[in-house]
Design a protein that fits this description.
homodimer; alpha/beta; Rossmann fold
């Protein structure tokens, strides 16, 4: 299964949630694909990895399909998240409404600058890096976000791994190495911009790029 | 061509740049694939959309392949970027070293809060939203980043489109509608986290997920 399938599940789920709000109970697979901008064959293939959804000629029940997808994504309960780095990015993330809406609760913010300890980053008190292990265990934190400068990122990742975290989202423009049982996802903001520079440079070619 | 190909080109380019720095002149397609965590068949397919690179039995010349990829991505020159929103996220982005490194130059920051006009966000003076059209034209800005709260995002997108911008990166958790000739890319930070919650929920299944 391609990793992109998982991101597309999130997109289907957002669309289905919108449909539910609009009071639309059932939707054909073509229409759901259309609304998400993903091609119908791709969508059916994505869903087929997880079982049989929908009925031929009837389509999908929006709330049922969304419930199933949320369960697949592990979103049938909340996740506690720690942010490392109480700078601008950490502050932006701790106040990012989209996280809470999707049941990711920022439960701790850490910073290695001890002058920041005890201050508030959004509604969360900043803890020092010495406290990572204790706070992670006490709060039941399972996901960490690295929002520190590139040169500090590797040290931070090591601390998070040592504290037993198995899932890390890294915003620092640095290549991190983590043990095999830890899932590391890198958000490289310049890659997003490179998609746009590609588009501006190859406007004619773009007509053939699928949404994915 | 799948849109994910373009993101993978960015990943190949970063890896090739590292190899160049390390003084490695040529690399086999298997080794390049290995270092990027992308499967070799996928990598060859991605590159094949753009021509014939490398020689059978010799591999790729790192600097030549990287130069070609950078050209495909439109990165053989700088791009001027505007950020809308001088809050925490806008400030984080304007100071994000990864952008400048990849030749995206933040040349303007806008905010609708006039009390912020004239202040500095990183090294860039904040302009008011009334000035978008003028500043975009004067500075030669081609890409805009939306870093405002969800409820302001649609209005901001309309202003950017009216100013003639054709490429927008949106960080607001809002579904924006733009004309067909405008490329909109949404960065939904909760989707990144959902990838991690999926992983934590389905650790056994994960073994079969390809890197992509």
């Amino acid at each position: 299964m391609p990793a992109a399938t998982i991101s597309r599940l999130s997109i289907y789920s957002r669309c289905l949630a919108q449909l539910e709000i609009s009071g639309i109970d059932t939707i054909s697979s073509h229409e759901l694909a259309d609304r998400t901008g993903i091609n119908p064959a791709q969508m059916r293939k994505d869903l087929s990895y997880f079982g049989q959804f929908g009925k031929r000629g009837v389509g999908y029940k929006t709330s049922e399909l969304n419930k199933n997808i949320l369960k697949i994504l592990g979103l049938d309960h909340e996740w506690k998240v720690a942010i490392v780095g109480a700078g601008n990015l950490g502050s932006a993330l701790s106040g990012y409404r989209g996280l809470k809406e999707h049941r990711f609760i920022v439960s701790a913010v850490f910073d290695s600058d001890k002058s920041k300890t005890g201050r508030y980053c959004g509604t969360v008190r900043v803890s020092s890096m010495d406290e990572v292990k204790d706070v992670v265990a006490r709060e039941g934190i399972e996901i960490a976000i690295i929002a520190v400068p590139a040169e500090a990122a590797h040290w931070v990742a090591n601390q998070l791994v040592a504290a037993g975290l198995k899932a890390i989202l890294n915003f620092a423009p640095a290549t991190l190495i983590v043990p095999e049982d830890v899932k590391l996802r890198n958000v490289d903001l310049s890659i997003e911009l490179e998609n746009l520079s590609y588009f501006l440079t190859n406007k004619d070619r773009e007509a053939t790029v699928e949404n994915a």
